[in-house]
Amino acid sequence: MPLSSIDGAGTSGGLTILRFAIVTLLAALLLFPGRAEAQLDGSGRHIAMALVAESDAPAPGNEVTIAIAARPQPGWHGYWRNPGEAGIAPRAAWTLPEGASVGDLQYPVPQTLTISGIMNYVYEGPFALLTRLSVPKDAKPGTALPISVKLDYLVCTNEICVPEKTELSARLTVGDGAISPERRARFDRWRRALPKPLGSQAAFATDSDGALRIAIPFPADAALGDAAWFFPFKSGAIDYAAPQRIGRDGDRLLIATKAGEAPGNAFGGVLKTGDATGLIVTAKRGAVPAGPANGFDWALLLTALGGAILGGLILNIMPCVFPILSLKALGLARAGETEAHARGEALAYSAGVVLTCVALGGVLLGLRAGGAAAGWAFQLQNPAIIAFLLMLVTAIALNLAGLFEIAMPAFVGRMASGGADSGKAGAFATGALAAFIATPCTGPFMGAALGAALVLPWYGALAIFAGLGVGLALPFLAIGFIPALRRRLPKPGAWMATARHILSVPMFVTALALSWILGRQAGADGMAAGLGAALLLALGLWWSGTRQQRGKAGAMIPALILGVVALGALFVIRPVATSHTTEGASLGAQPFSEAKLAELRGQGRPVFAFFTADWCLTCKVNEKAAIETQTVAKAFADHDVAVLVGDWTDGDPELGRFIEAHNRAGVPLYLWYAPGDPRPRVLPQLLTPAILAGLPEAGVRGAD
């Protein structure tokens, strides 16, 4: 039997990796001689491995997926195809029957592991390396098809490394290619962990100071996980241990980091977009927006700061902020208000706003420094915090509606009774509340400004968050320092009660928006739990309000008790995985399945099937510019065209197999099924309304 060699490393490492590998191997052999020898006889391995075929009876001329299933012992880890600054990638040598062949090993998305400042790309839990075995066309059914592979790999803890070897084998028999449901499900789980091809070209640029910027096409509304990271395939492309700052610039991601010794003119890698999901990216040297990866860009800072101030100013008219600002502003119209008091309250309110914005920005930067790809309103990624905001906004709305009053603590009352500090504590708290409540809202100019903050150094980023707070505080600050503005405010009177009731309406609208966000994050059950908690709190506030009207002592006790009970809902609300794909809704699109496709074709209807993903920019452009247009909708309706959409966002293996069957590695894929034609026509990856509208009218036949 001939010997086929597959090098899992892909590319050679640098001198640093070579030195580390030599030292590691010598240390392992010297310190653990008995253990190293034990690897050869199959005992004591720290990564248990098995060779598994998806079908034990592959058909002649077909391919069958082969997996090297690995399970490290607790505390140990194996390495990705590019191990990082240290380690050794697995090396595989295959022994196959005459005429058979295997492809390159496919690796799942790895994890980062930093030890003493050295970055490693590893697997700390079970993983599987996949490849495709091609069966000879002339193989006879019933013929034995033995395969084996010799593996050399390194396994480590945080303190020691041990080189291991193993030889795995499997005996297949040429047959009909049948796959058991259990085996199919197992391989589908492994396929989901593989990165998916992005399908769009990325670009990178380097600066004289060693900064590296990568621009990756990625739709602005596509979700990005909390641990986004770029893993290069080859050594020398990037500085492994350098931090990666990831921000959005419209329909692309900008990664700011440090270049390696030899980035060359092109390199590939994997962009991790979730806990176990990723995209295969190919980047070529080209134009990338300037970013301060390793320096300070004053022009960018000043531009972003202006946008942040303007964006914060506009936030004041949003439903979640306007009622609070209005009531606080009207409070300054009290009869007998002094200049010193007005200015003191304005400064205290502004301090509360700015410090809260800076604190939220600091937490955001801390999360990103820890590897999370968080953005503004990052707390809204947590359904429990959304539910808390829902309860808080509901309480504010009911307070404005006059259901209850918040009793002022005695020490605050004494502070407000006179002196230069009169009312400052309440103004500061109101400003902090306004800034916190503002996080669900976004306004013009904010996106670009806060996106710039995420690629600036931390001190520049905090300045932008402070600028957002300044913009948010500006109206009240102006009222406090400009007497002419205060004189234009209406004088206190009975009308203020009506105004309060009217201002409760936008707060109720904000509560409705938060419940919708909660439903998107936690599903129907989570939304029901959040609304139930808000209802329970409202019941407690109503009860307390009736006690207040009767002048009873401890009126707020029922609200406090039921509020604490309602907070228990925060511990049961969990995020759920949902698909938000709405592509093709204007065409009456249905979810794709092979059974549904067969049913529609059996009815003799023409079918347009398209396959998309939230992270596929080309897909989104085609959907907006061509598919979801009135021209196409009319043409399809006139000819009774059925539309099927396959959402490959989560890497659905069933859709993946269907896509591969049409000689495509990923999305977009567009198929036109003409009535009576046994095979579909594969359409171009860039569509126009004319192409689609002309399909049913031309009665297209044939396949590419």
TrEMBL record:
<keyword id="KW-1133">Transmembrane helix</keyword>
<feature type="transmembrane region" description="Helical">
    <location>
        <begin position="346"/>
        <end position="365"/>
    </location>
</feature>
<dbReference type="GO" id="GO:0045454">
    <property type="term" value="P:cell redox homeostasis"/>
</dbReference>
<dbReference type="Pfam" id="PF11412">
    <property type="entry name" value="DsbD_N"/>
</dbReference>
<dbReference type="GO" id="GO:0015035">
    <property type="term" value="F:protein-disulfide reductase activity"/>
</dbReference>
<dbReference type="InterPro" id="IPR003834">
    <property type="entry name" value="Cyt_c_assmbl_TM_dom"/>
</dbReference>
<feature type="transmembrane region" description="Helical">
    <location>
        <begin position="458"/>
        <end position="485"/>
    </location>
</feature>
<dbReference type="InterPro" id="IPR035671">
    <property type="entry name" value="DsbD_gamma"/>
</dbReference>
<keyword id="KW-1003">Cell membrane</keyword>
<dbReference type="Pfam" id="PF13899">
    <property type="entry name" value="Thioredoxin_7"/>
</dbReference>
<dbReference type="Pfam" id="PF02683">
    <property type="entry name" value="DsbD_TM"/>
</dbReference>
<dbReference type="InterPro" id="IPR013766">
    <property type="entry name" value="Thioredoxin_domain"/>
</dbReference>
<keyword id="KW-0812">Transmembrane</keyword>
<keyword id="KW-0201">Cytochrome c-type biogenesis</keyword>
<feature type="transmembrane region" description="Helical">
    <location>
        <begin position="524"/>
        <end position="543"/>
    </location>
</feature>
<dbReference type="GO" id="GO:0005886">
    <property type="term" value="C:plasma membrane"/>
</dbReference>
<feature type="transmembrane region" description="Helical">
    <location>
        <begin position="385"/>
        <end position="404"/>
    </location>
</feature>
<dbReference type="GO" id="GO:0017004">
    <property type="term" value="P:cytochrome complex assembly"/>
</dbReference>
<feature type="transmembrane region" description="Helical">
    <location>
        <begin position="497"/>
        <end position="518"/>
    </location>
</feature>
<feature type="transmembrane region" description="Helical">
    <location>
        <begin position="425"/>
        <end position="446"/>
    </location>
</feature>
<dbReference type="InterPro" id="IPR036249">
    <property type="entry name" value="Thioredoxin-like_sf"/>
</dbReference>
<protein>
    <submittedName>
        <fullName>Cytochrome c biogenesis transmembrane protein</fullName>
    </submittedName>
</protein>
<feature type="transmembrane region" description="Helical">
    <location>
        <begin position="298"/>
        <end position="325"/>
    </location>
</feature>
<dbReference type="InterPro" id="IPR028250">
    <property type="entry name" value="DsbDN"/>
</dbReference>
<keyword id="KW-0472">Membrane</keyword>
<feature type="domain" description="Thioredoxin">
    <location>
        <begin position="568"/>
        <end position="704"/>
    </location>
</feature>
<feature type="transmembrane region" description="Helical">
    <location>
        <begin position="555"/>
        <end position="573"/>
    </location>
</feature>
